[in-house]
TrEMBL record:
Domain of life: Bacteria
PANTHER family in alphabetical order: SLL0788 PROTEIN
Residue stretches making up the DUF305 domain: 52-176
Protein name as it appears in the record: Uncharacterized protein (DUF305 family)
Signal sequence range: 1-39
Coiled-coil residues: none
Lineage summary: Bacteria, Bacillati, Actinomycetota, Actinomycetes, Streptosporangiales
Keywords: Signal
């Protein structure tokens, strides 16, 4: 599969999301405050609600790039361990994209489809043109940098988000990305005697 043709499931607008739209949750003066962040309600504070919406939109796009980078490697594998990690990244982050799309709709009446910027598409094309050692080294270094950015954003989410489900997801992203970074750094050194240039987040 060409990484740039990747598709994600489009979620239907739920009854809760429709009600949120009718109430003007995200129009005119911005996000309407709600008494508390219950299962299907916006965050209580307007600033927090804005953060949650922006965070989920950005993380959906961020995950889309990781999936676009990881999926083609399953077919280009030189090391099966790295191919397995790519499957894990593609599967878990695709599922998290759908999860965040659902929360955007359920809590805020907002729809968002994954987007790759022109720079993102160019990065994926550069990877697709490589093979063997050059591909693996470039891929792991690129994914380490990518995971580092998501880890930093997830730490910010833990400080500012309100919905427990989103907080749990941010903690999962932070922990899993940190573990995968450590794994890829080890492989870079073990297989190719290379460093990633990453110093932690």
């Amino acid at each position: 599969m060409n990484a740039l043709s990747i598709r994600f499931l489009r979620r239907p607008v739920t009854a809760v999301a429709s009600a949120a739209l009718a109430a003007g949750v995200l129009f005119g003066g911005g996000l309407a405050a709600a008494p508390s962040a219950l299962a299907d309600e916006p965050a209580a504070e307007q600033e927090t609600a804005r953060f949650e919406v922006d965070f989920m939109k950005n993380m959906i796009d961020h995950h889309a790039l990781a999936v676009a980078m990881a999926q083609p490697y399953v077919e280009k594998a030189a090391h099966e361990k790295l191919a397995d990690l790519c499957r894990t990244i593609a599967d878990s982050q695709s599922a998290q994209i759908e999860q965040m799309q659902g929360w955007l709709q359920d809590w805020y009446g907002v729809g968002h489809e994954p987007r790759l910027s022109p720079a993102d598409k160019q990065s994926v094309r550069r990877l697709e043109d490589l093979s063997g050692e050059r591909y693996e080294v470039r891929f792991m270094r690129s994914m380490i940098r990518h995971h580092s950015g998501a880890g930093t954003d997830s730490k910010r989410c833990l400080d500012r988000a309100e919905h427990p489900a989103l907080l749990d997801l941010c903690d999962t992203i932070r922990r899993s990305n940190s573990k995968q970074i450590d794994t890829m750094q080890g492989w870079l050194q073990q297989w190719y005697g290379r460093q990633s240039g990453y110093s932690g987040y």
